């Protein structure tokens, strides 16, 4: 970076001015170097071109040379996506807050081709970001319960952005780890409509559903493996 310490808000401001960008978040390390850039963009903009636009803008303005792999782009479809029987959908979200310990217990139940899978997460939730991450982690665990090894998803980040029109949007960054060790980074988003935690789960599912139909599922899984049996499903109703 240049000699003058460039502020995060300056970086985000120039990114917000690029065509097709609805919102963006820049993450820097303790020394001020850019670690990640997450961008929410309209679907009419080619994501690869948008990444190049960001690289060019930062290089032209401040001489910053940025590895394109540090930039992730999530595209927002204004129309409701078509729900397929093969995609994973949210069935139930339960949150239990222990006021004495500030521990938040999250349980997410997802439906995959008529079968239900459960994921849980527990931890301190002293901030909104911490609570969002626990919810997203439980969603990832629920999806993983439906997959055959060695495939699995990992949660890399979840955050909220505000569009220029004042809409709050949950954005998730998820990694798909394959047997070879190769990781594919996926992004998903969901508009918040008064349900922040549901939007976090749906943003995770939006990300995983971009690849889920090509992955082997564990239909014969037992209750202990994460799949709910008929009696437990009935108890959830």
Index terms:
5 helices; 237 residues; 2 domains; disordered C terminus; alpha+beta; 26% helix
Describe this structure in words.
The structure is a single chain. It contains five helices and nine strands, in the order αββαββββαβββαα. By secondary structure, the protein is an alpha+beta fold. The chain has two domains: 8-76, GMP Synthetase, Chain A, domain 3; 88-236, Double Stranded RNA Binding Domain. Strands 1-2-3 form a three-stranded mixed sheet. A three-stranded antiparallel sheet has the order 4-5-6. Helix 3 (128-144) packs across helix 4 (196-208).
Span between termini:
56 Å
Mean pLDDT figure = 83
In N-to-C order, the SSE pattern is HEEHEEEEHEEEHH
Strand arrangement across the biggest beta sheet:
1-2-3
Rg to the nearest angstrom?
Answer: 19 Å
What is the CATH class designation of the largest domain? Answer: Alpha Beta
Which CATH architecture of the largest domain?
2-Layer Sandwich
Low-confidence stretches: 78-82, 220-225, 229-237
Major sheet details: 3 strands, mixed
CATH T-level topology of the largest domain:
Double Stranded RNA Binding Domain
Counting helices, strands and paired strands, the structural category is alpha+beta
Strand content: 35-45%
Number of domains: 2
Helicity range: 25-40%
Q: What general outline do the C-alpha atoms trace?
A: globular
Counted beta strands: 9
Number of helices: 5
CATH superfamily of the largest domain, by name, is Alpha-isopropylmalate synthase LeuA, regulatory domain
